[in-house]
Amino acid sequence: RQVAILRLMRQLAQVYDKITMSKVVSLIPFIEELELERLIIDPARTLDLQLRIDHSTGTFIFGSTIQYQREETSSGPTVQQMPSEMFRNQLVSLHRSLNHSVQLICPQIQAKAKEQARHDAISNYLKGAKKDQQNMIKRKEMIENRKEYYENLNTEKERAELQEREKTRVEAAKAETKRRDEEEKKRTEERSAREEKHKDKLLKMERVKKLMEQVGEEPFKGLTEEELCEMEEEDLLARGIEYMSKEKNEFKQKMKQVERRLDYNTRAQRLVEIPLFEDEWEVTQKENKVWWEKKEADKIEMAIKKREQDITTRERLLRMKDDKDAFVADLLTQMEEEYARQLEDYEEEMAIVRANRREEKKQEILRDLTRKRNEETRAREEMERKRQKEEELRKFKEERQRDEEEARAAAKKQMEKEAEVMAKKEAREKERRNDIYDARGPRDRDNRDFGGRGDRDFGGRAMDKRTMVL
C-alpha cells in the first residue's frame, strides 16, 4: 500500500503543482485522510518525495522548495522536470564548467597543489618516523607479550578442558553404573513381580480346585484359567453358592414332586404297619433290657480287675521313684553344664567377632583418613606446582624486563662514552691548532682572521662529523 501510494504521488507531481487532500483521497479509496498524511510524511522527511502539506487550505504542494532529492529512476512515466530539479541540474553544469575552465587557464595550480601535498606528506612522515618506529617496537613487544599470555591462557584452558573431560568421564561412568544398577534393580523387581504373579495364580488355581472339589466343576464350566485367576475369591465363592442354591432348589422341587407321588401309598402302608411296629417295639425293649443288664455286670467285673491291677502297678512304681529322681537330677545337671558350656563358647565367638568388626571399622577409618590425606597432599602439590609456575613466569618477565632495561642503559652509556671521546678528540685538535699558530710567529698573525675563518671552517666540519657519528 505504501509503495502504491508513493508511486501515485510521484505521478501526480509530474502533472500538478498543488492538489487538494480530498481529491487524493478520492483517487485512493482504500485509505483515509489521516492515514494518507502519516504515510506521506516519512518519504517527504527522507527526501524521497518533494512535498509540503498546507493544512490551512487542505492541499498538497509539489516542488515548491529547492532542496536535495535522491536521484532515482521513476517507476512511472515522466512528463516534465520539476523546477527544483531544473535548478539543481543548472548548478551542477555550472560547477563542472568552472572546474574545467580553471584547469585550462592555470594548470600549474593543480601541479603546485600536488607538490605541496607531497611535501606535506613527506614532512609528516619525517616528523613521526621515529615515533612510528618506537610504536612498532612497542607493538612488537606487546604482540609477543600477548602471544605468550594467550599461549599460557591456552595451556590453562587445555588443562581445564582435560580436567573437565576427566570429570565428565568419571560422571559418565558413575551415571552408567547407576543406570546399570537401576536396570538390574528394575529387572529384579520385574522378575519378582512375575514370580509373585505366578505364585498368586497358582494359589488362586489351588483355591479354585478346592472350591471345585466342594461344589463341583459345573459352576465354573466355560471359564478359562486366566478368567478364573482374574476373578476374586468372593466372586468364585458367590458363583459356587449360587450354583449350589440353584441345585438345592431344583432338588427340593423334585423331592416335592416325588413326595406328592409317594404320599398316598406311604400313608396307607403306615396305617397297616403301625400295630406291627408297636409289638416289635415291646419285644425289642425287653431284649435290650436283658442285654444292658448283662453288659453292666461285665463292666463292673472289669472295673474291679483293673483296680486291682492299678494298685499292683502303683506299688511297683513306688519302688522305682528314688532311682527316677536320681536319674532326673543327673540329667538336669548335665543339661545345665551343657548349656553353660555352649553359652561360654557363644560368648567367646561373639567376643572374637566384635573384635574383628572393631578392627575392620578401625582399618576402614584409617583408609578413609589416608585417602583424604592423599587427596589433600595432591591438592597442595598441585597448588604448589601452579604457584611455582606462576613464580617462574613472573621471574622470567622480570628478568626479561631487567635485561631490556640493562640493554637500554648500556646503549645510553655507550653513546655517552662516544660523545665524551669525540669531545676529547675535538679539544686535543683545538690545542694542536693553537700550538701551530703560536709556532708561526708575528708574521703570520696578520692572517689571523683568515686562519680564524679556516679554523671555523675546520671546526664546523668536525662538528658535522660528530653530529653524523651521534
Largest sheet report: 3 strands, antiparallel
Name the beta content range: under 5%
Which parts are unreliable, with pLDDT below 50 for 5 consecutive residues or more? Answer: 64-79, 442-470
Overall geometry comes to: elongated
Separate helix tally: 9
Distance between the termini: 79 Å
Portion of residues in helices?
over 70%
The total count of strands amounts to 3
Order of helices and strands: HEHHEEHHHHHH
What can you see in these coordinates?
The protein contains 9 helices and 3 strands. By secondary structure, the chain is an all-alpha fold. Strands 1-3-2 form a 3-stranded antiparallel sheet. A hairpin with a 4-residue loop joins β2 and β3 (59-62). α5 packs across α7 and α8 packs antiparallel against α9. The longest helix has 120 residues, at 321-440. The radius of gyration is 67 Å and the shape is elongated. The two termini are 79 Å apart.
Tags for this entry?
single chain, 470 residues, mainly alpha, 3-stranded antiparallel β-sheet, 9 helices, 3 strands, 85% helix, 2% strand, elongated, disordered C terminus
Q: Gist?
A:
With 470 residues, the protein is mostly helical.
Outline the secondary-structure elements:
Elements lengths: L1 H12 L4 E3 H7 L5 H13 L5 E4 L4 E4 L20 H23 L1 H109 L9 H6 L2 H87 L1 H120 L7 H22 L1
Antiparallel strand pairs: 1-3, 2-3
Helix pairs in contact: 4-5, 5-7, 8-9
